[in-house]
Amino acid sequence: MEDLNSKITLKLLIDARSNKVLFGEAGKDLVDFLFSLLTLPLGSIIKLLSPSTMNGSIGKLYQSVENLNELYLVANKGKACLLQPKASSYVNNLLLLATETSVELKYYLCNFCSRKVTTVRNTVCPNCNRGMVIEVAFVVPSDSASSVSSGNAGESVGGYVKGLFTYMITDDLEVTPMSAISSITLINRFIMKKDVQLEEKVVAVGIEEGLALLKASLDSPTALTDVFCSPKKKEKPPSSSIVEDDDDDDDD
Q1: Per the structure, how many domains does the chain have?
Q2: Pairing of strands 131-136, 123-124
Q3: What is the domain range of residue 175?
Q4: How many CA atoms lie within 13 A of 116 on its CB side?
Q5: Is the CB of residue 14 less than 8 Å from the CB of residue 21?
Q6: Does residue 130 fall inside a structural domain?
Q7: pTM for this model (two decimals)
Q8: Is residue 115 part of a domain?
Q9: φ, ψ dihedrals at 82, nearest 5°
């Protein structure tokens, strides 16, 4: 999944008449991606989507930091901690966002008492007033070590949800375990409202679609429709008035 050229498959049930997604059917990979959006720092989201495309004032706030002279910043506080904040370890390895937004932190241990750690070399240890200069590695706990075993020894424990199941994703990105009852209930509720023509559509989700889903999740209650169903172009009515005017001129 770390190959940037690979894609995730999403099966959609759409109404061809209204060009609207009813729901999607996906596996672990896509659900893990959607859930991981909740862990992205705001600064990373703005950088990924471009400040100019953000609604509200947050884009201007981001650009303010970009344009601010380093002279005004507190020592040891560069712009990177705001503009390129470090995301969770799982997000950093995501196929879809594969972000350049995260800054790799280095950690330094007090070389005298070995009781304090900092991210800025030569910081004075508050315990013994010595410089903290010994670089150490930060070890991220594995999911298997930090979670209770489910008894499925052969199942991968990366990400957030189990890979044994299929998941339903509604147009507004509500995620639930897929079941025949839930899908039939949703279909019946949908077709009662209007004349529909249900069709299945399989789409590939890559980096471009992942970013589009991120933006749509912030802007719209119909994220899947916005990303995967192009709006139908409205046909312009014939401009008959021009012809009528010409005829009137001829009569004159």
Answers
A1: 1
A2: antiparallel
A3: 8-144+165-228
A4: 19
A5: yes
A6: yes
A7: 0.65
A8: yes
A9: -100, -40
The answer to the question of residue 236 being in a domain is no
Whether the CA torsion 41, 44, 49, 53 is positive or negative: it is: positive
Half-sphere exposure (Cβ direction) of 1: Cα atoms closer than 13 Å: 19
What is the amino acid identity at position 53?
T
Q: Can you tell me the distance from the alpha carbon of 102 to that of 104, in angstroms, rounded to the nearest whole number?
A: 6
Beta strands in 46-188 (DSSP E): 107-110, 117-118, 123-124, 131-136, 167-170, 175-177
Provide the residue-wise pLDDT of the chain in tens; the chain has 252 residues. Answer: 445 567 899 999 998 888 999 999 999 999 988 988 888 888 888 888 888 887 778 788 888 888 888 887 777 667 887 887 766 555 554 545 555 444 567 889 888 888 888 888 888 898 888 888 888 887 766 544 444 444 444 444 577 888 888 999 999 999 999 988 878 888 887 777 677 888 999 999 988 898 899 999 998 999 999 999 976 444 444 444 333 444 445 454
- Whether 150 maps to a domain, the answer reads no
Amino acid letter, 52: S
Identify the burial level of 201 via C-beta atoms within 10 angstroms of its C-beta, where 0-12 means exposed, 13-18 middle and 19 or more buried.
middle
